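User: I'm writing a tutorial on reading structure tokens. Could you give me a worked example: one chain, its sequence, then its tokens, then a sentence or two explaining what the tokens reveal?
Assistant: Sure. Here is the example chain.
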Amino acid sequence: MTQLKILIVEDEPMVALALTLAAEDLGLSVVGPIARVSEALELLGEVAIDGAVIDAQLLDRDITPVALRLAELTVPFVVYTGTGLPAELAETYPDAPVLMKPTPVEEVLRDLIVRIPPPAEVLMMPGPA
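And here are its predicted structure tokens:
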């Protein structure tokens, strides 16, 4: 079975490390962590991912462009934040999934995993004979 590839977009080093270690413990492949919106957008043009955990406010601006690009690509994501959704994102995508810090990182990742549809090979597995 293919390992799920998860993008982590977080500018706080300790939070990024905690998410990365927890994701690896769950058997996920981690892309990132990325701390800037500009870098995340560039990466989304180069790498296919299965899901993402994104912070609301990064070093260069709020996460809105990344969240909207993920939604456009139909990539499930959760916003993991201490501040809530940025105004523009709340207006454009009011149902964006939000988990407030300090929700445990394992819970954040479990919330993301259940949003990711099963891979095609799982859907096509034959049932019992």
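What the tokens reveal: The first helix runs from residue 13 to 25. The chain has six helices and five strands.
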